[in-house]
Amino acid sequence: MGRIFIGILMTAAGFMMVWKTEAIVQFTGYNAWAEDKLGTMGGTRLLTKLIGLIVIFGGMLAITNMHQSFLQATIGKLVSGRM
Is 79 inside a domain boundary? Predict the structure, then answer.
């Protein structure tokens, strides 16, 4: 039950990051790396939206209890002790 609650909170937080990007940028300021690499005067907003989408994806994985399977399938092979 706890994972569902945490997943819902993560999904809601990610949604707010995507929806209220301008308020977040005004509060935190611009990110020099994002402005340089992702575009001028829009890179910070794009980075905030991308982070929000990743948080939404992680929340959905937590709600459906697929987070462990996803991590094992993607990066589990890189960090496993077997060679």
Answer: no
- The pTM assigned to this predicted structure is 0.85
Within a domain: 80: no
Per the structure, the complete domain to which residue 19 belongs is given by 2-74
Helix, strand, coil shares of the chain, percent, nearest 5, are: 80, 0, 20
DSSP one-letter code for 68: H
The rounded distance, in Å, linking the Cα atoms of 7 and 1 is 10
- For 81, counting Cβ atoms within 10 Å of its Cβ (0-12 exposed, 13-18 middle, 19+ buried), the class is exposed
Domain total in the chain = 1
Q: How far apart are CA 38 and CA 47, in angstroms?
A: 8
Is a pLDDT exceeding 60 seen at residue 76?
Answer: yes
pLDDT digits over 31-53, tens only?
Answer: 999 999 988 778 999 999 999 99
Percent of the chain with pLDDT over 70: 96
